[in-house]
Structure formats: structure tokens, C-alpha cells
Amino acid sequence: MPDSPLIVARGLVKRFGDFVAVDGIDVEVRPGESFGFLGPNGAGKSSTMRMIGCVSPPSGGTLQVLGMDPATDGPRIRARLGVVPQRDSLDEELTVEENLWVYGRYFGLPRAVVQERAKELLEFAQLTDRASSIVEPLSGGMKRRLTIARGLVNTPDILLLDEPTTGLDPQARHVLWDRLFRLKREGVTLVLTTHYMDEAEQLCDRLVVMDRGRIVAEGSPRELIDTYSTREVLELRFDTDDHAHRLGDVDGIADRVEVLADRLLLYVRDGEAAHAEVLRRGLEPLSALVRRATLEDVFLHLTGRSLVD
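Above: the chain's sequence. Below: its structure in C-alpha cell form.
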């Protein structure tokens, strides 16, 4: 069936000795969607991706990728996957173009096909003018775009991206998001891990929030925010070493209050009205910021921790 899930995991487990990295998760990824695993470092995201990519066997549960079992059909599955690892593994002594040629030959593609595909991918990655450049001196953003282009050489059914923009500056991240958004519009199925809430909101149609190897929530970014947070958040910073001491001062203003080391987060329907009430009470915060709720707030509500902990 054309709409059957491309990835189905049931009770999926990954252990390393006594340590349980992935603790019985259920996941389905549908054709053409951009699906994300959101969580802090150590949540089990990369371990899950390695199982889906058929380079790490599950310790328990069941996993099907493209209707096949990774335990018996690993090579056939890998031939239909594109993989963008967390760290670039480019051949830095070769040129940009040669990296694509060599990778295409790994898949047994004819030389003429690889060369034509390389031209298309260099244009997609905005690297045409650097085709003959040695890779080593390129910027981090260029190397990341080349790694994504390389992952598309075999025209994969699924593109796996592990922390695609870690270490990039804001401008390079936005260029990369634009390239991935174009892939999504073309119907490429994307599966990505990230600990950046803005990245998940930008790229993911649907995602799971992971913490300590388990899934704690699932849905679209908008659904998760609507379910687990208020529409707006008022951030207050006071001149104090412990913001918990100011909880009584803001009692009754918000639906919920979270105490962080350097500020209070007031979860409210109307941030400006809440700020006006703070001032009416004679409180004098060092700073006050009204913002819309994000996936960071969802994670904080579900786990009591920040995504960057």
C-alpha cells in the first residue's frame, strides 16, 4: 500500500551492557513527512537513528524499515537510505565534486549517472561554484550542505539526519533549513534528530519528545504546544540569587510558573495583561519579556528540565 508507514518500531530497545539507551519506544514514520526526534543529549535519539539506519542491531522489540527487517535485510535497506551523520565524514583531500562521485560509486551507480547526479546535487546544495575546491578549507556550513548532497546521491526513499545543524552559525543553519524544506516539498521523507526547538518547529510535520530513552510526548509542534503549554510566556528576572523566593509575589497571575536559575517563567494566555498585573503589584523585575510558547516549554513541563541540560 502506498501510504503504509516506511518505518515501524514497536517496543524498540537498545542496551549497552546494563545501560538502557532506548527504552521500549513505539514510532511510525509515514511517506513524505518530516519526522523528528527532539530531546537533550543522551535522550536516546542517535541510538534510535543508528538502529533505523541498520548499523546497530536492536536489543529488543521489533523494527521494520521500508517493509523489511534490518536484522536480515540490512544491505537492501541501506541501499535505499540517505544518511547524514552527526559529524561530517567527508574525504577532505578530495574536491567537492569528487566526494559525490566516490560516494555514488559505492552504490554501484554508473559513472555517467553519478556525474549527472553530482551536477544536480551541487546546484541543490549551492556548491556549483566550489565543485573543484578541495573540501578541507570549506566552511562548516558548506561541508554540512555537501554531506547532505552526498546522502542524496542514491535518490533515497528516506533521508536520515542526525543533529543536522549542530555547530553551525545562525546564518548557515537557516541556509540548511531552506535546503531541507525544499526536499520536504519535493516529497522526500526526512527523519531527523535535534535538540534545537526552533529547528524542530521549522522542519518537523510531526515529532516525538524523548527523555532518558523514552517517548514522553508525540504530535505536531503546534499540537504539543497547545496541549502542554499556554499561548504565551512571561519571563521575569529579579535581582535575587534564588528566583524561588519570588514565587509568592506572582501567585495567581499565571496558569503555571516554572523556576529557572536566573528567571521565572509565567505561563499565561495574555502576556501583556500578566505583565501589567506584575507592575500593579509594585514588583520591579530587572527585565520582563513576553514571548510565544515553544517546544522548550513543552519539554520543561514534561520533564522539569531544559533541553540543553
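The CA atoms of residues 131 and 184 lie 25 Å apart.
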